[in-house]
Amino acid sequence: AGSFLHWDDVVEIAGWFGLDLVPILHRGPWSKELLKLADGTSTFSKNVREGCVIHPVKERFDERVGRVILKMIGEQYLLR
C-alpha cells in the first residue's frame, strides 16, 4: 500500500514548484453546513460546480471507507 502526504505538506511542496492547487473552499472543523459547498458556480468557470472534495488535514485510514478522502457531488450538478 502507498502512503500520502498530509495536506499542509502538499501545499508547501506545490509552492516550491509554483504549482496551482484546487481552491480551498473551507478549512476548519466539519459541520453538516459544509455540504452546501458542493453546490454553486464553479470557481474556474460559469458552469455548475460538480461538487467538492472533503479530506482531513492529516492523512488517515478508516477500516470502513479506506483512505479518508470523500467527494460530495453537488445536487445542482446531478440535476443539470
Structure characterization notes:
The mean pLDDT is 89. The protein is globular. By secondary structure, the chain is α+β, with helices and mostly antiparallel strands. It has helices at 7-17, 75-79, and strands at 51-54, 61-62, 66-67, 70-73. The chain has two helices and four strands, in the order H-E-E-E-E-H. Strand 2 and strand 3 (66-67) form a beta hairpin. Helices cover 20% and strands 15% of the residues.
Number of strands: 4
Give the overall silhouette: globular
Q: Counting H and I runs of at least 4 residues, what is the number of helices?
A: 2
- Provide mean pLDDT, rounded: 89
- Approximately how much helix is present in the residues? 10-25%
Strand content: 15-25%
Overall structural class, as computed from helix and strand content, comes to: alpha+beta
N-to-C series of helices and strands:
HEEEEH
C-alpha-based Rg, rounded: 14 Å
